[in-house]
Amino acid sequence: AKEQVVRLSDVPGKTTAMPRAAPHPAAQPLPKTGVDALPLAGIRVLDLTRMFAGPLGGQILADLGAEVFKIEEPRIGDPTRGNIPFMKEESTYFMSLNRGKKSVVLDLKSPEGREALLDLAAQSDVLLENYRVGVMDRLGLSYEDLRKRNPHIVMCSISGFGKTGPLKDKISFDLVNQAMAGTMAITGEENRPPVRIGLPVGDLNGGIFSAVAILTALHGRRRTGKGAEIDLSLHDLLITLLGYMGQLYLMTGESPKPVGSGHHHIAPYGAFEASNGHVVVAAFTQVFWAKFARTIGRQELIEDPRFVTIDTRKLHKEELNALIEPIMRTKTVDEWLSALEAGDVPCARVASVGEVLTSP
Asked: What domain count does the chain have?
């Protein structure tokens, strides 16, 4: 009999046995040490991408053990090679996105360069590119061209708005994407100029999901033997990150407004000024709200009709913050962290990048 590991049912009080999934027939044990022990060992990737999103996707695959060839144009190369600062004549920006790759220079506009790439594609599993829509077709390197040499290849194309639709030819960088996808409209503070999220979140999302899409296609290929063409729109991906903000508009017809470090529905939640810096407090639940009120010595606020529930605190958020802010300014960051952590309140200092990377 098959081993039973989970029992599930939609009927209250009843369970249905679910057998353990059988091992994949093609599964082979991996070595226990070295690069060959990584999950993508034996997978070859041709990375034709530049700038941020595409190189990040290729780097993720390299970190997982794939053999990744970074293919660049002669003389020009990836523009981020010129981004300062430099260490030993190498751009630290470029290095942060191209770790673990092998470098190849090909002039894809020449017949020889195109043929060389097609030869490599015939021996590879994945081709990742982020040229403007139509460039790969004009170079004679479309998915159909690649399939003629290798019907099993997975091709992932990253672009601002995808290969189809009215925006397919529009130029896009992360700032353009953030503006068009709604994220700048909910970042920063109300009645202030729009603010870009500090990280290139659209490009980061694109890099991560390009790797996810490629891994999904490779998994599907193990079952079907067929390759796949992936059309990845950075704009579509960033819209998916709106999450409950998008759902809020769909349900109410009202576009969410920026709330700084705070939250649309929860209080106290945000960055509060201490005497020498800022502390974030995330009293996400009723339990943590009560613990926070006791920690700051204002336990009477727990039963205050204005603040007694999550909903009433939302309605009176400005009044509540006005009571909390002067109290928070009476102590240092370290003093508040000590008190809040002792009181089991979710909290943290607002750390600089340097503080994060030098923290033990």
From this structure: 2
